[in-house]
């Protein structure tokens, strides 16, 4: 016990934010005028805190075994100081562990399992998400084209950034894999004049987007389907494909099949943009220090992260050629802090919504989990433990028009200027 206390006191002294900890027997350690206060109900929480397992401490907070006082920003600053390992390097390293992880991944990511995992997260409550997302409910990394944009403006900038990268043109067939609450799907249809198809596994998202399609008179140009990407059969190939915040749910063992499916759904010469969270380390499929376990248990069951180099290898094996990759990691840190701050400001409303839909006990647990999740992920992106990459790829057409020999070509220009020049979207 003394060794644990000494270890904890050394860690607390390193924190840039004052932390005070009250032990189960009433003993107090740490700063007397602390900005963050933790009251522990059992010895296991003390062990986790002293060992820097901040994900386990987060789980104890969610379960009510640790009482917390202090803001999320202060707590994250303190939590980073308690770490004993690099969360981006604390992962699977031995070959046999990777084999077991791959076997678990393949067993977990069935059609039924993935549907249940998506429903667990995205069908929690539309009203809850609406409290802290932007009005379009874009639940992915925003893009601060200019530093003074609001969150809503930065999300619209992200939607347009994706459409520009894909060089969307009126009349093109556009597929949005994992279309969420329809932000990109409707933006592409209304601003770029495409024929848009979105897919999701979420009951709530499907119903929400269908209402928007009907309300905006887009039934002839936009459709939203509730099915798995592996089940989609297209009578005609799509010209352009986007997958935003979805491939994190695919699983490492399914990644080759995922990109082969994307390849199958595209016409030769078409473009795909894959926007997703990537691991900071080469070998880990989630965050260390217990943070990955926390997210798996409370937020995203079945989620797995790949390093961008692994994602590119899977993409290449599927016959797709990467033509541009952009890391938006700092943008996601800012996005998550915006979401976190918005949720912190509306905790009472959030608790009322979640309690009404799921009961007071589960509602309170869910709110504690999301408060920690949003702020914890903001910290992880700030520190580079995870990243966000937009990967633009082409399905080569297999020929160069007018050339004497077969070659590789696609709808991609010789430079990137088209992505950034000008401020407006193409006319519908």
Automatic annotation (TrEMBL):
<feature type="active site">
    <location>
        <position position="377"/>
    </location>
</feature>
<dbReference type="GO" id="GO:0008610">
    <property type="term" value="P:lipid biosynthetic process"/>
</dbReference>
<keyword id="KW-0443">Lipid metabolism</keyword>
<dbReference type="GO" id="GO:0008168">
    <property type="term" value="F:methyltransferase activity"/>
</dbReference>
<dbReference type="InterPro" id="IPR050723">
    <property type="entry name" value="CFA/CMAS"/>
</dbReference>
<dbReference type="Pfam" id="PF02353">
    <property type="entry name" value="CMAS"/>
</dbReference>
<dbReference type="InterPro" id="IPR029063">
    <property type="entry name" value="SAM-dependent_MTases_sf"/>
</dbReference>
<dbReference type="InterPro" id="IPR003333">
    <property type="entry name" value="CMAS"/>
</dbReference>
<keyword id="KW-0489">Methyltransferase</keyword>
<protein>
    <submittedName>
        <fullName>Cyclopropane-fatty-acyl-phospholipid synthase</fullName>
    </submittedName>
</protein>
<dbReference type="GO" id="GO:0032259">
    <property type="term" value="P:methylation"/>
</dbReference>
<keyword id="KW-0808">Transferase</keyword>
<comment type="similarity">
    <text>Belongs to the CFA/CMAS family.</text>
</comment>
<keyword id="KW-0949">S-adenosyl-L-methionine</keyword>
């Amino acid at each position: 016990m003394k060794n644990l206390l000494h270890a904890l006191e050394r860690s607390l002294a390193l924190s840039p934010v004052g932390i005070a900890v009250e032990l189960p027997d009433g003993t107090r350690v740490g700063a007397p005028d602390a900005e963050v206060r933790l009251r522990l109900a059992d010895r296991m929480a003390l062990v986790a805190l002293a060992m820097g397992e901040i994900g386990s401490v987060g789980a104890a907070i969610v379960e009510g075994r640790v009482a917390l006082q202090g803001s999320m920003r202060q707590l994250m600053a303190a939590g980073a100081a308690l770490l004993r390992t690099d969360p981006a390097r604390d992962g699977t390293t031995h070959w046999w562990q990777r084999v077991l992880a791959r076997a678990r991944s393949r067993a977990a990511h069935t059609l039924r399992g993935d549907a249940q995992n998506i429903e667990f997260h995205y069908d929690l409550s539309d009203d809850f998400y609406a409290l802290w997302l932007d009005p379009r409910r874009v639940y992915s990394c925003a893009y601060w084209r200019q530093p003074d944009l609001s969150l809503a403006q930065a999300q619209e900038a992200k939607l347009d950034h994706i459409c520009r990268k894909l060089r969307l043109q009126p009349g093109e067939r556009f597929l949005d894999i994992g279309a969420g609450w329809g932000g990109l799907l409707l933006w592409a249809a209304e601003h770029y004049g495409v024929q848009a198809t979105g897919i999701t596994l979420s009951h709530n998202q499907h119903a929400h987007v269908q209402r928007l399609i009907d309300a905006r008179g887009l039934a002839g140009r936009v459709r939203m389907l509730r099915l798995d990407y592996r089940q989609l059969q297209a009578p005609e190939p799509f010209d352009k494909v986007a997958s935003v915040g979805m491939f994190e749910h695919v699983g490492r063992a399914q990644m080759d099949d995922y990109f082969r499916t994307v390849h199958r759904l595209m016409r030769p010469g078409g473009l795909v943009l894959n926007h997703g969270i990537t691991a900071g380390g080469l070998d880990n499929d989630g965050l260390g220090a217990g943070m990955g376990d926390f997210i798996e248990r409370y937020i995203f069951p079945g989620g797995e992260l790949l390093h961008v180099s692994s994602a590119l290898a899977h993409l290449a094996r599927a016959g797709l050629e990467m033509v541009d990759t952009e890391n938006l990691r700092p943008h996601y840190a800012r996005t998550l802090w915006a979401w976190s701050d918005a949720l912190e400001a509306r905790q009472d409303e959030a608790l009322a919504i979640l309690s009404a839909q799921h009961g007071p006990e589960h509602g309170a647990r869910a709110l504690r989990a999301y408060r920690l999740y949003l702020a914890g992920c903001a910290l992880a992106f700030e520190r580079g433990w995870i990243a966000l990459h937009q990967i633009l790829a082409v399905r080569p057409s297999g020929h160069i028009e007018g050339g004497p020999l077969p070659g590789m070509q696609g709808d991609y220009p010789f430079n990137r200027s088209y992505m950034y020049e000008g401020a407006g979207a193409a006319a519908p």
